[in-house]
Amino acid sequence: MLSMLRTTKRCILNCALVLLTSLVGIASAQTSWPTRPVKIVVPFPSGTSPDIVARLLSQKLSERLGQQFVVENRAGAGGILGTELVAKSAPDGHTVLMTVNSIMAMNPFIYKKLPYDPVKDFQSVSTVSAVSYVLIANKNFKHKTLVDLFSAAKANPKSINYASMGQGGAGHVVVELMSSQANIELMHIPYKAGALVDVISGQVPLILQPTTTALEQIKNGNVFGLGVTHPKRIASLPDVVGKDWLCQPPLPCQLSSNSKRRFLSSWRCLMSWLSLPV
Questions:
Q1: Domain with 29 in it: what CATH number?
Q2: Is residue 234 predicted with pLDDT exceeding 70?
Q3: Is 140 exposed, middle or buried (0-12, 13-18, 19+ CB in 10 A)?
Q4: For position 224, which CATH number holds?
Q5: Residue 191 near residue 165, CB atoms below 8 Å
Q6: Residues 119, 265: contact at Cβ < 8 Å?
Q7: Residue pair 274/123 in contact by the 8 Å Cβ criterion
Q8: Residue 265 exposed, middle or buried by CB count within 10 Å (0-12, 13-18, 19+)
């Protein structure tokens, strides 16, 4: 498992090289940028997947561009608070956002009003990474397979809780999609912070996490994986079923051939206020 984590880190750092090429080009064309430390705002708590990615990148960016790239965590409201901070920051390219799909692609369809516009307020600097999600359970959770979980949830709707990092986030929307396809009802428990901690301690049995976040906890035996959102099993979690989970007996297959091939991923993208010199 340690080698898997090293591979994940290598992949992220390889992505950083692509990002560095982009930013070095910007810095060469606009010698006035960056003129002071650059703040990378992560709209989630410390230790989450976007935070880990941002900290790996900040070190390499600082070394290459000659200015400090400092990570600042501004968690709250499913990532909205930190995103609003960047949208309202000084338009000079020195405050950037490490964002994820839920903030830019999901929130506009969930909330009637947002304090930011993903299209008008931001431009993408570079996509950094994309990983599968994995549904994980506390080590003492009695349902050890998705078939067992689905069967129990069908027999007693809303009797099984799952945690997420907030209403409308990927950890909420993806689980609800799964529940809809499996024709079950789970009880959603949204958190501002500490959701994974409560799953590890057994306060809540289930949570959906990016594989990069979940691997260490699975390795330590604190949780176990039930299913990944990749169409098939993935190398880092060979014992966890892929997204064709809904076609396993005794459950009827409710996915079309096209939907079974879709890769539900968690992506990270570095974005700036529209004024970043490009």
A1: 3.40.190.150
A2: no
A3: exposed
A4: 3.40.190.10
A5: yes
A6: no
A7: yes
A8: middle
Same structural domain for residues 160 and 252? Answer: yes
Residues 76 and 157 in one domain: no
Q: For residue 241, what are the domain limits?
A: 132-261
Please give the Cα distance from 97 to 85 (Å, whole number): 9
Among 63-72, 131-140, 143-152, 260-269, the range scoring the smallest mean pLDDT is 260-269
Cα 130 to Cα 104: distance, rounded to the nearest angstrom? 14
Residue 74 main-chain phi, psi, to 5 deg = -130, 80
In this predicted model, what pLDDT tens digit does every residue of 145-162 receive, in sequence order? 888 999 999 999 999 999
CA atoms within 13 A of residue 146's CA, in its CB half-sphere: 27
Residue type, 263: F
